Amino acid sequence: MRSREYAVSVVVTEARVTCPECGFKKDEEMPLDACQHFYRCAGCDALLRPLEGDCCVFCSYSDQRCPPMQAA
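Given the sequence above, the corresponding structure tokens read:
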């Protein structure tokens, strides 16, 4: 009998955001069902917005894609 292997996709919900202005890094919890369009840096108070072509600040400035993009 042949065993079947199934790919299991795991959605990562924590990401490390790095501010492009000051380099400050902070771990943040990402929303599961929405893209976050604004993020205030805790280091320098800069208001971050997504880069052109990205859906949210996590896709632009973190080490993980946002959950909606991971699921796509």
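The chain has a mean pLDDT of 90. Try to locate this feature in the token string yourself.
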